[in-house]
Design a protein that fits this description.
This protein is an alpha/beta fold. About 35% of the residues lie in helices and about 20% in strands. It is built from 10 helices and 7 strands. The chain has a 7-stranded mixed β-sheet with strand order 3-2-1-4-5-7-6, with helices on both faces.
């Protein structure tokens, strides 16, 4: 199953002919958008993922590591019960946005520039690990998960959509590039992998949340704002944004998002490769 996960994610690579024609990096992340998401999460902490992390900290505060932290939407809401927050991300601008918000909250914080699990052994043990909307970018999922299990003492909490988060864009890729995109892997594949790894107290909970906050932290984005990012993701020129917006009017999932929260008690994964 782990090999199928890797193969499925490799199929999401954008073909070279399309990348070569792009005038912008399709994967460039808008820091302001992530900052708005973090601000919203702090002002209104909620959701199953938040509860699974918070419930082990409320009676006994501890350290939290946020892997693939962005601006801190997963970890900053836990500040009232955390003794410190550590953010790991490969984007320095995201870490700066996290640090600014953590400082405002008055919480001890640390930033680590790099990737997981490459830096896992250089980071201290933490009580809770939160990993939101990251794993669909992780082809080598078993080492990634095993490092989380080995470097966390009380709970690991992953958040992801049931399907790859860009699946909804598949009709747009077909329309603008005549390209058929994958539909896997899915969250249940990861649950199966974790089950085969033998993690303890494994839970997978499905729920629904409102969608992304706007760059200014408000509750919604305009279609034009979303179309600007999607046009970039589609490797199209900026002048095609109106075309993309018109197409999105029929394919955009809007603000309701289905989410899966996967959590477990760390320290139990055996060191074997029988599940690969």
């Amino acid at each position: 199953m782990a090999k199928r996960w890797t193969t499925a994610l490799e199929a999401w690579a954008i073909p070279k002919r399309i990348l070569d024609a792009a005038t912008r990096d399709p994967w460039l992340l808008p820091v302001a958008r992530f900052g708005g998401r973090a601000d919203r999460a702090v002002s209104d902490p909620c959701g199953v993922s938040f509860e699974r992390a918070a419930e082990v900290l409320r009676d006994s505060p501890g350290t939290v590591i946020d892997v693939g932290a962005g601006a801190g939407a997963a970890s900053l809401p836990l500040a009232p019960w955390a003794t410190s927050l550590t953010a790991l991300d490969g984007n320095a601008a995201m870490l700066a946005a996290f640090a600014e918000r953590a400082a405002r909250l008055g919480i001890e914080h640390h930033e680590v520039l790099g990737t997981w699990p490459e830096l896992a052994t250089e980071i201290a043990m933490h009580d809770v690990a939160v990993v939101h909307h990251v794993v669909y970018n992780v082809a080598a999922i078993v080492p990634f998960v095993r490092a989380l299990d080995e470097r966390t003492t009380r709970r690991v909490v992953l958040e992801l959509p049931p399907h790859h988060p860009l699946t909804w864009m598949n009709p747009l890729w077909k329309q603008f590039h005549d390209l058929d995109r994958p539909v896997s892997p899915i969250a249940s594949d990861l649950v199966e992998i974790l089950g085969a790894m033998g993690v303890a107290d494994l839970r997978a909970e499905h729920w629904t949340t409102l969608g992304l906050a706007a760059a200014d932290g408000s509750d919604s984005e305009s279609l034009a704002e979303r179309a600007a990012l999607v046009t970039q993701r589609l490797c199209l020129r900026v002048e095609r944004e109106p075309e993309v917006a018109a197409a999105m009017a029929e394919t955009d999932p809007g603000y309701h998002r289905d989410i899966v929260t996967i959590s477990w008690t760390p320290g139990s994964t055996p060191r074997n490769d029988t599940h690969r």
